[in-house]
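so im writing up the methods section and need the Molybdenum transport system permease record in one place, dumping it here so i stop losing it
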Amino acid sequence: MRRARTPAPLLVPAALAVVFLVLPLAGLLIRTPWSQLGTLLTAPGVGQALRLSLVSATLATAVSVVLGVPLAWVLARSRARGRAVLRALVTVPLVLPPVVGGVALFLVLGRQGIVGSWLAETTGITIPFTTTAVVIAETFVAMPFLVISVEGALRAADVRYEDAAATLGADRWTTFRRVTLPLVAPGVAAGSVLCWARALGEFGATITFAGNFPGTTQTMPLAVYLALQRDPQAAIVLSLVLLVVSVATLLLLRDRWLGRGAAA
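--- predicted struct ---
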Protein backbone atom coordinates (compact mmCIF):
# COMPACT_ATOMS: atom_id res chain seq x y z
CA MET A 1 0.00 0.00 0.00
CA ARG A 2 1.19 3.48 -0.83
CA ARG A 3 1.72 5.55 2.28
CA ALA A 4 -0.57 8.55 2.71
CA ARG A 5 0.96 11.97 2.32
CA THR A 6 1.53 13.97 5.48
CA PRO A 7 -1.22 16.58 5.97
CA ALA A 8 0.09 20.11 5.46
CA PRO A 9 -1.03 21.37 8.91
CA LEU A 10 1.24 18.76 10.50
CA LEU A 11 4.37 19.65 8.57
CA VAL A 12 5.10 22.96 10.29
CA PRO A 13 4.89 21.73 13.92
CA ALA A 14 6.80 18.59 12.92
CA ALA A 15 9.56 20.71 11.39
CA LEU A 16 9.66 22.91 14.49
CA ALA A 17 9.97 19.81 16.66
CA VAL A 18 12.90 18.55 14.59
CA VAL A 19 14.63 21.93 14.79
CA PHE A 20 14.01 22.09 18.54
CA LEU A 21 15.55 18.67 19.10
CA VAL A 22 18.41 18.80 16.61
CA LEU A 23 19.57 22.41 16.89
CA PRO A 24 21.11 22.08 20.39
CA LEU A 25 23.06 19.02 19.26
CA ALA A 26 24.20 20.83 16.14
CA GLY A 27 25.26 23.76 18.30
CA LEU A 28 27.35 21.43 20.43
CA LEU A 29 29.13 20.14 17.33
CA ILE A 30 29.60 23.62 15.88
CA ARG A 31 31.05 25.07 19.08
CA THR A 32 33.36 22.13 19.77
CA PRO A 33 37.03 23.29 19.79
CA TRP A 34 38.22 20.61 17.39
CA SER A 35 41.78 21.92 17.34
CA GLN A 36 42.03 21.47 21.12
CA LEU A 37 40.13 18.20 21.26
CA GLY A 38 43.12 15.99 21.99
CA THR A 39 44.55 18.34 24.60
CA LEU A 40 41.28 18.71 26.46
CA LEU A 41 40.54 14.98 26.40
CA THR A 42 43.95 14.19 27.90
CA ALA A 43 43.66 16.86 30.60
CA PRO A 44 44.05 15.69 34.21
CA GLY A 45 40.81 14.31 35.59
CA VAL A 46 39.11 13.66 32.27
CA GLY A 47 40.47 10.15 31.95
CA GLN A 48 39.58 9.40 35.56
CA ALA A 49 36.03 10.65 35.12
CA LEU A 50 35.56 8.69 31.89
CA ARG A 51 37.01 5.51 33.35
CA LEU A 52 34.91 5.82 36.50
CA SER A 53 31.78 6.45 34.43
CA LEU A 54 32.35 3.40 32.24
CA VAL A 55 33.17 1.10 35.16
CA SER A 56 30.33 2.28 37.41
CA ALA A 57 27.76 2.17 34.59
CA THR A 58 28.87 -1.36 33.68
CA LEU A 59 28.67 -2.52 37.29
CA ALA A 60 25.25 -0.89 37.69
CA THR A 61 24.06 -2.67 34.55
CA ALA A 62 25.38 -6.01 35.80
CA VAL A 63 23.55 -5.57 39.11
CA SER A 64 20.41 -4.54 37.25
CA VAL A 65 20.53 -7.66 35.07
CA VAL A 66 21.02 -9.98 38.03
CA LEU A 67 18.19 -8.41 40.02
CA GLY A 68 16.00 -6.99 37.25
CA VAL A 69 15.49 -10.05 35.04
CA PRO A 70 13.95 -12.14 37.85
CA LEU A 71 11.84 -9.14 38.85
CA ALA A 72 10.63 -8.76 35.26
CA TRP A 73 9.68 -12.45 35.22
CA VAL A 74 7.66 -12.00 38.42
CA LEU A 75 5.83 -9.02 36.91
CA ALA A 76 5.15 -10.78 33.61
CA ARG A 77 4.44 -14.39 34.61
CA SER A 78 3.65 -14.53 38.30
CA ARG A 79 0.04 -14.63 39.45
CA ALA A 80 0.82 -13.22 42.86
CA ARG A 81 -1.44 -10.52 44.22
CA GLY A 82 -0.21 -6.98 44.26
CA ARG A 83 1.61 -7.13 40.93
CA ALA A 84 0.06 -3.84 39.86
CA VAL A 85 1.33 -2.15 43.00
CA LEU A 86 4.75 -3.75 42.57
CA ARG A 87 4.92 -2.60 38.94
CA ALA A 88 4.04 0.93 40.00
CA LEU A 89 6.77 0.90 42.65
CA VAL A 90 9.31 -0.40 40.15
CA THR A 91 8.54 2.39 37.70
CA VAL A 92 8.64 5.18 40.30
CA PRO A 93 12.35 5.92 39.67
CA LEU A 94 11.45 6.67 36.04
CA VAL A 95 9.38 9.68 37.05
CA LEU A 96 11.04 10.53 40.35
CA PRO A 97 13.47 13.48 40.18
CA PRO A 98 16.96 11.97 40.48
CA VAL A 99 17.88 14.34 43.30
CA VAL A 100 14.93 12.99 45.31
CA GLY A 101 16.20 9.49 44.62
CA GLY A 102 19.60 10.50 45.97
CA VAL A 103 18.01 11.91 49.12
CA ALA A 104 15.99 8.71 49.57
CA LEU A 105 19.12 6.59 49.22
CA PHE A 106 20.90 8.81 51.71
CA LEU A 107 18.09 8.42 54.26
CA VAL A 108 18.29 4.64 53.95
CA LEU A 109 22.01 3.98 53.44
CA GLY A 110 23.57 7.08 55.00
CA ARG A 111 25.50 6.99 58.26
CA GLN A 112 22.30 7.90 60.13
CA GLY A 113 20.04 6.05 57.71
CA ILE A 114 17.66 3.19 58.39
CA VAL A 115 20.09 0.55 57.12
CA GLY A 116 23.27 2.61 56.99
CA SER A 117 23.42 3.23 60.73
CA TRP A 118 23.21 -0.49 61.47
CA LEU A 119 25.79 -1.22 58.78
CA ALA A 120 28.20 1.37 60.18
CA GLU A 121 27.80 0.12 63.75
CA THR A 122 28.20 -3.57 62.98
CA THR A 123 30.78 -3.55 60.21
CA GLY A 124 32.21 -0.03 60.19
CA ILE A 125 31.29 0.32 56.52
CA THR A 126 29.86 3.61 55.26
CA ILE A 127 28.47 3.80 51.74
CA PRO A 128 27.82 7.49 50.93
CA PHE A 129 30.53 9.43 49.10
CA THR A 130 32.22 6.28 47.82
CA THR A 131 32.42 4.59 44.44
CA THR A 132 29.97 2.02 45.75
CA ALA A 133 27.49 4.83 46.29
CA VAL A 134 27.90 5.82 42.63
CA VAL A 135 27.02 2.29 41.52
CA ILE A 136 24.03 2.13 43.87
CA ALA A 137 22.69 5.50 42.71
CA GLU A 138 23.05 4.55 39.06
CA THR A 139 21.41 1.18 39.64
CA PHE A 140 18.46 2.83 41.39
CA VAL A 141 17.66 5.13 38.48
CA ALA A 142 18.59 2.76 35.63
CA MET A 143 17.20 -0.64 36.62
CA PRO A 144 13.56 0.21 35.74
CA PHE A 145 14.56 0.63 32.09
CA LEU A 146 15.80 -2.95 32.00
CA VAL A 147 12.85 -4.32 33.96
CA ILE A 148 10.28 -2.73 31.65
CA SER A 149 12.11 -3.91 28.53
CA VAL A 150 12.45 -7.49 29.74
CA GLU A 151 8.87 -7.59 31.03
CA GLY A 152 7.64 -6.54 27.61
CA ALA A 153 9.76 -9.22 25.96
CA LEU A 154 8.41 -11.86 28.35
CA ARG A 155 4.82 -10.86 27.64
CA ALA A 156 5.45 -11.04 23.89
CA ALA A 157 7.24 -14.42 24.04
CA ASP A 158 5.34 -17.50 22.93
CA VAL A 159 4.62 -19.53 26.07
CA ARG A 160 4.02 -22.66 24.02
CA TYR A 161 7.76 -23.34 23.98
CA GLU A 162 7.83 -23.22 27.77
CA ASP A 163 4.78 -25.47 27.95
CA ALA A 164 6.47 -27.95 25.60
CA ALA A 165 9.57 -27.98 27.81
CA ALA A 166 7.38 -28.63 30.86
CA THR A 167 5.65 -31.56 29.17
CA LEU A 168 9.09 -33.03 28.42
CA GLY A 169 9.91 -33.06 32.12
CA ALA A 170 11.89 -29.84 32.52
CA ASP A 171 11.42 -28.09 35.84
CA ARG A 172 10.73 -24.34 36.03
CA TRP A 173 14.35 -23.36 36.62
CA THR A 174 15.57 -25.44 33.69
CA THR A 175 12.80 -24.05 31.49
CA PHE A 176 13.76 -20.53 32.49
CA ARG A 177 17.45 -21.08 31.72
CA ARG A 178 17.15 -23.16 28.57
CA VAL A 179 13.97 -21.80 26.98
CA THR A 180 12.76 -18.50 28.43
CA LEU A 181 16.09 -16.66 28.55
CA PRO A 182 17.00 -17.44 24.91
CA LEU A 183 13.53 -16.29 23.85
CA VAL A 184 13.84 -12.92 25.57
CA ALA A 185 17.58 -12.45 24.98
CA PRO A 186 17.01 -9.52 22.54
CA GLY A 187 14.85 -7.79 25.14
CA VAL A 188 17.48 -8.35 27.81
CA ALA A 189 20.16 -6.97 25.50
CA ALA A 190 18.12 -3.89 24.59
CA GLY A 191 17.20 -3.28 28.22
CA SER A 192 20.84 -3.65 29.25
CA VAL A 193 21.96 -1.07 26.70
CA LEU A 194 19.28 1.38 27.83
CA CYS A 195 20.16 0.72 31.45
CA TRP A 196 23.87 1.28 30.77
CA ALA A 197 23.22 4.51 28.89
CA ARG A 198 20.96 5.83 31.64
CA ALA A 199 23.51 4.93 34.30
CA LEU A 200 26.26 6.61 32.31
CA GLY A 201 24.33 9.88 32.19
CA GLU A 202 23.14 9.90 35.79
CA PHE A 203 23.77 13.17 37.64
CA GLY A 204 21.24 14.12 40.33
CA ALA A 205 21.20 10.99 42.46
CA THR A 206 24.95 10.59 42.12
CA ILE A 207 25.91 14.07 43.28
CA THR A 208 23.40 13.89 46.14
CA PHE A 209 24.29 10.44 47.45
CA ALA A 210 27.91 10.03 46.35
CA GLY A 211 29.21 13.59 46.10
CA ASN A 212 31.67 14.96 43.57
CA PHE A 213 35.16 13.76 44.46
CA PRO A 214 37.65 13.43 41.56
CA GLY A 215 38.83 9.87 41.06
CA THR A 216 36.27 8.47 43.50
CA THR A 217 32.76 9.66 42.66
CA GLN A 218 33.19 12.26 39.90
CA THR A 219 31.62 10.75 36.81
CA MET A 220 31.44 12.36 33.37
CA PRO A 221 28.16 14.29 33.95
CA LEU A 222 29.58 15.69 37.18
CA ALA A 223 32.83 16.58 35.41
CA VAL A 224 30.82 18.44 32.75
CA TYR A 225 28.98 20.42 35.41
CA LEU A 226 32.22 21.35 37.17
CA ALA A 227 34.06 22.17 33.94
CA LEU A 228 31.23 24.44 32.78
CA GLN A 229 31.97 26.73 35.70
CA ARG A 230 35.73 26.82 35.17
CA ASP A 231 36.45 25.95 31.53
CA PRO A 232 33.46 25.99 29.12
CA GLN A 233 35.60 24.59 26.30
CA ALA A 234 36.40 21.50 28.35
CA ALA A 235 32.71 21.15 29.23
CA ILE A 236 31.86 21.13 25.53
CA VAL A 237 34.40 18.39 24.82
CA LEU A 238 33.17 16.25 27.69
CA SER A 239 29.59 16.75 26.50
CA LEU A 240 30.68 15.64 23.04
CA VAL A 241 32.00 12.39 24.51
CA LEU A 242 28.63 11.70 26.12
CA LEU A 243 26.89 12.58 22.85
CA VAL A 244 29.01 10.04 21.01
CA VAL A 245 28.10 7.40 23.59
CA SER A 246 24.40 8.23 23.20
CA VAL A 247 24.58 7.92 19.42
CA ALA A 248 26.42 4.62 19.76
CA THR A 249 23.62 3.39 22.03
CA LEU A 250 21.03 4.24 19.40
CA LEU A 251 23.06 2.42 16.77
CA LEU A 252 23.15 -0.68 18.96
CA LEU A 253 19.37 -0.54 19.26
CA ARG A 254 18.87 0.25 15.58
CA ASP A 255 17.86 -3.25 14.50
CA ARG A 256 15.44 -3.59 17.41
CA TRP A 257 13.68 -0.23 17.11
CA LEU A 258 14.42 1.52 13.84
CA GLY A 259 14.44 -1.68 11.85
CA ARG A 260 11.12 -2.74 13.31
CA GLY A 261 9.61 0.65 12.56
CA ALA A 262 10.80 0.49 8.95
CA ALA A 263 9.35 -3.00 8.56
CA ALA A 264 6.06 -1.77 9.90
